[in-house]
Amino acid sequence: MNYLRRRLSDSSFVANLPNGYMMDLQSGPRPTPPSSTSNPASPATERRTPPSLPPQVPASGSALGSSPAPTPGGFLSSFSSVVKTAQLAQNAAAAAKASAAVAEAAAAAPAKPVIRKPKILLVIDDLHTDWAKCFRGKKLNGEYDIRVEQAEFSEINLASYMNTGCMIDMQAIRGGTKVVRSFKPDFVLIRQHAYSMTPGEDFRSLVIGLQYGGVASINSLLSIYNFCSKPWVFSHMIKLYHSLGPEKFPLNEQTFYPNHTQMVTTPTFPVVVKMGHAHAGIGKIKVENELDFQDITSVVALARTYATSEPYVLSKYDIRIQKIGNNYKAYMRTSISGNWKANTGSAMLEQIAMTDRYRLWVDSCAEMFGGLDICAVKAVHGKDGNDYIIEVMDSSMPLIGEHVEEDRQLITDLVINKMCSVLLGINTPQPSAVKPQTTQPRRAQGGHRSGSDSPSQSAQGSPQRARSANTSPSQAFQPGPMPPPAATGTGSQKQPPQLNKSQSLTNTFTETLKGNATDDEAKAETIRSLRQSFASLFSD
């Protein structure tokens, strides 16, 4: 109010006011405009201009009482509203102009590439396979790089949290240098056994930690944990045996003993006793009679573990049917060193035809524990002509044969498809299963299979007839009787040069294949001679 009084005392300010807005400072109360509906008794209408202020005379000389004048507060409020409205309109126009300029600049500027954080793949495997090389250059949906961290179970530790997932601590030796890293895996490929009764090889707690952290894997962590007990897996194979029948799923008979106290006797001998949970032939004993069986019972008591027994099958060869995604392969392994364990000593391995019978075996086992992406079924083909399924393996199965690199690539593609499905929600259809062309193995020098074939040979296949699933090695070779000694040259003929073992064995193959398969005894003798030659060659 003091400000208003000072302004009204200024004659220049009063002279610039429009007509009718000057009030008579000497007339007492301020007039109220006719349109006003305010209460005349309100304090605003009772205010008086201090009499100390002198009266002001308008410069225009117009009459003061021609129309009532509004209050100075009303005038200033109207004036402020007009100014604020103008400012708001001006600010809105400026903002719209700036937004249009920004949008135009963004449209004209080139789009910056989006840098995505790579997905971390933990591969649990030994160092014999460089999985980083297999995944090099691969991307998830063409957008995310894959960072491979490879270590063995013994080289990692972890901590898992309910909300933040799993954190891996890795301590490994690489090239003589200790490597220490911590990372949070997005996916896990498990290519090692998670449990063995061998001291220091129980890693089930790490599997629990990965499951606790919600990490997806191949095979599933549920199946990995279930495969930590072979009798537990065999119990699920028994279900398949009862549902499919012994003709379609010929499971070898097995007896389970939770401890040594129940190991009294078995109905037949010889038997194979398997103690606890182990791999690669460890803990397996062939028992010929009841006395030996009682001796093994005392060993089981000392080990404080469970045991199983199953009839020993006098086999011609072992069979392995593997499944990686939608790819199937069948192999036959024949021992040539005379060991009753076909995976021990020297053996000959070859790929055989994939039959519907074999496919049923592996497909049925692949449905265990919610599904197995990678698995293999092991069986024995006995000399009685029957097949006996003895075991199923999970993603820790070793890769064998001449197509190891192809199998690694199949696993790589399978992992990428699974990572896209789990991490990105993109389901990439797997290639349809193609029945592989089965070739008869090449007979290289030394009689054993060659380590690898050229790409063209493996793709086109051999022109020779593929061996059927029920063909024994002796039928495949079709040897004839040994040639008479005179055929080698004696007397006045020149003696042949001294041959090494490989050349001698090659000549033996050539000579035996020329004969006619008429004498069974001669064929048997030839096979024994070939096996001895194989054993002698591999023993060097």
Automatic annotation (TrEMBL):
Which locations, inside or outside the cell, does it occupy?
Answer: Synapse
Q: Where is the composition biased (Polar residues)?
A: 428-442, 452-472, 493-515
Molecular function (GO) terms for this protein are: ATP binding
Q: Does the keyword Lipid metabolism apply?
A: no
Q: Which SUPFAM superfamilies match?
A: Glutathione synthetase ATP-binding domain-like (SSF56059), PreATP-grasp domain (SSF52440)
Query: What are the residue boundaries of the Synapsin ATP-binding domain, all occurrences included?
Result: 219-420
Instruction: Please indicate if the UniProt record lists Phosphoprotein as a keyword.
Output: yes
Q: Which InterPro entries match?
A: ATP_grasp_subdomain_1, PreATP-grasp_dom_sf, Synapsin, Synapsin_ATP-bd_dom, Synapsin_P_site, Synapsin_pre-ATP-grasp_dom
Low complexity composition bias: which ranges? 35-44, 58-69
Kindly state one GO CC term assigned in the UniProt record.
Answer: synaptic vesicle membrane
Please give the biological process terms from Gene Ontology that the record holds: neurotransmitter secretion
Q: Which family would the database say this protein is a member of?
A: Belongs to the synapsin family.
- Would you tell me the protein name for this molecule? Synapsin-3
To which species is this protein native? Salmo salar
